[in-house]
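ERR on first pass: missing label on line 2. Operator R.T. fixed the label and resubmitted. Corrected input:
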Amino acid sequence: MSKKKWVILLTMLTILTLVLTACGGGGSAQQKNASGGSQGTVEITFVNWATAEEATKQQMLDVIKEFEKQNPGIKVKNVPIPVGEQLNQLTIMTTGGNAPDIAQVHFDVGISLAAMGALEPNDNLLSKEFLDDVNKKLYDFGMYEGKHYLIPWVGHPLGFWYNKKLLQEAGLDPNNPPQTMDELTKAMEIIKQKLPKDVVPLQIDTTIRTLGLSHEWSFMSAFGTVPVDGDKVQANQMGPYAEWLRMLVQKGYTLPGKKFGEFRPLAAQNRLVFGFDGPSFKGIIQSFDKSITDEKFYETWGVTTLPVGVDKKPYSAPDDHNLAIFKASKHKEAAAKFAEFLARSDFSIKTYVIPLGFLPTVQSAVQRFPKEFSDPARKAYVEKVVPAEVRLPYGPNYSKIATVVMAGMQEVITTNKPIPEILNNVQTKLEGIIHGK
Amino acid sequence: MANKPDRILEEVGRRGFPRLPLPFLLVFPAIFVLSIVILYPLISSSFLSLFHYELTKPNEVEFNFLTNYNNMLHDDTFWLAFKNTLIFTGVSVVVSLVIGLIGAIAIDQLPERFAGLRGVVLVPWIIPGVVVGFLFMLIFDVEVGVANVILKHSGIIKEFLPWLMDEHLAMIAVIVANIWNQVPFYILMFTAGLKAIPMDVKEAAIVEGASRWQEFIHVTLPYLRGILVITSLLMVIRNFNNFPIIYTMTGGGPVFSTTTLVIYIYRLAFEQFNLGYASAVGIVWCGVLLMVSMIYVKMLYKQVHG
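pass 2 clean. output:
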């Protein structure tokens, strides 16, 4: 082909590309939102996993419907996404100029989005009434660089569930679960000796996921050292925890490589003795086996805080669900109104929070619904587990930290490599992430 | 003398438009589409690979030239992923090829009334990778997996094995799943190849006193050589790109023992949002694939042009 024809071909390609680009652009939610739907109505896009999961879908849709009924000027466009995809999807939506108005997020995801500059601080968006009522501790967990970015919606901290029937079968006191890590280890030894082989003593998530780190964090805390404390990297001091974790797998006290949700079917089959799970554990077990009534459930299961370790303090990790309002939203006030409705309204608490076994994040809920929040499990959560919640090292590096730490923990349980060698390697990598070494 | 379409184009040219040959215009849409869907992302990724660019830190984007490539040289996980890619691809291709060849010969011998079996054999090939991944994740489950049950009942193992949580066993498990999924493709290709061998050549060999084995080695195999090479190269490319089976079964774990390059790129880009570094790894991966593809194209050309 001659030079002239090449020039013509390239020119035509460029023109066509520009034409197609021009035709394809301009579809962001914000632009659509700005124009509004019908006259005087605004549409807010709500990204969530509540409507992506069968167990919570209908209740969530009912709450949205009620909100629209009470607020005729606001329409909610529901966008379901899987829980494991929240950071991925929201990051791509935001960087693609298609950010939603509001989204359901876990703390780690919310803080990562805040660090990215994708979220709007809440303090000036929420009503004084709401700010006075919200659980301050949870609200402060959603802070990044001195500003609040997350609105606590439902509480879901991890508590220590114990199977009273199996404890009794193993000859242990069903009403006196292990109080310390040493007692827990001893109890697991007895369980392994006395109960059938298919009974699993402990639920612990050993997957390479941010949720895996959240799950193990409280156990790590009980052993005295967490991998990262502020800017301080101390993974090389986690020897006692790593030894204990290796022992758990070697002695068959847990199933390696399982997500913590994968232990729930075992619990429903009465094959799990100690669980470390949120308050929705009860509802999930009952959904697996419809014959388990509330009475039956409480005959079998009790809940308290995780056994204490060296510092005698109980720990719990927050697995709570929050709401985040996006900076790109054109209807932040409407989104804030929706957030307050989800977290605080009688309808939402009655339809969503109570039946699904969650905890409220506003103080007035327990006074408004005293009977509903007085069951043994929720009482234990409100009184013991929530105060034990600690904040994890959320931030733009959290995902990387989780990958490195959990890969290290997997190395501990799947290889015979000396533990100091593994931990030193984790230490070096974490220092690289945090201090840029 | 110019044909009719060319004459039209010449006419158009006289009215002030450039004279373009018809083949050029016909090829243009294809080139245009390929430029958009292949060339643009490739150029964009190459460009991105020269930057420190993390989606979670949008204010810290900076040009760092070849730093990402330099980091790659010292990145243990990258080299492990590269090694895993070679093991996964090599073992999958070789074992599938052997099983596929044996399967094709067996199917070729079947009487006509069993022709329907050829269709049944293809079933694993049409099942999506994610479904295959889930299927084998359950088969190799430490607690309820049928693999452990069979092996224990056969007396091969004494205790259930944690297939997906052992760094050596996990790779075996994902390779087994992958082989199950792709063997039908080899069977399909080899069956077609076997059908193309002239019967008289085979019969001549037998009449000359060749055994079945000698006939296979000296007649069948040389006829299948072309298909064998091209199919293998095609499958090398496919396995280099295999994502769903590995990701569904192990997510690249335990630790990074089943992390291949494509899984590593996914984790870097969509879990750690390190787009600059992910692009650099992607470019290297693309380069390796390009080399394999060039060999494939060369082979194909040789096949077509004798």
